[in-house]
Design brief:
Shape: flat
Order of helices and strands: HHHH
Distance between the termini: 56 Å
Radius of gyration: 22 Å
């Protein structure tokens, strides 16, 4: 069994400190409920205050990676369908491909499919 180095102990303490969660205040709860009432399920809920900033950042990074994987998969499928002549070459899944084809402004201003 390996012994834990001082560097590993400091790293663990740093992560534990960054993951401390102080809990939701009444003001945060009210803000969350107002947002939920106004937008229902059409927008991402307010996530600030539900968990530590560290965990929230990890969650958002994971979401971003998942979307990037989905975009790659969609592009691959469209390419395969075009190559097999199932899909016409004129088909454009989204116009003016931006850095994020699924961003709110892209979806609002353009036809996606």
């Amino acid at each position: 069994m390996q012994t834990v180095t001082e560097e590993q102990k400091q790293y663990k303490q740093n992560i534990v400190a960054r993951r401390k969660y102080s809990g939701m205040t009444e003001q945060m709860k009210e803000k969350y409920m107002e947002h939920r009432k106004q937008y229902e399920n059409t927008r991402e809920p307010i996530l600030n205050g539900l968990t530590s900033k560290y965990d929230l950042e990890l969650f958002r990074q994971a979401q971003a990676r998942a979307i990037e994987d989905l975009v790659r998969e969609i592009v691959f499928i469209i390419s395969a369908l075009r190559a097999s002549s199932i899909l016409s070459p004129e088909f454009v899944p989204w116009t003016k491909l931006s850095s994020n084809p699924f961003s709110a402004s892209t979806i609002r201003n353009q036809r996606v499919f």
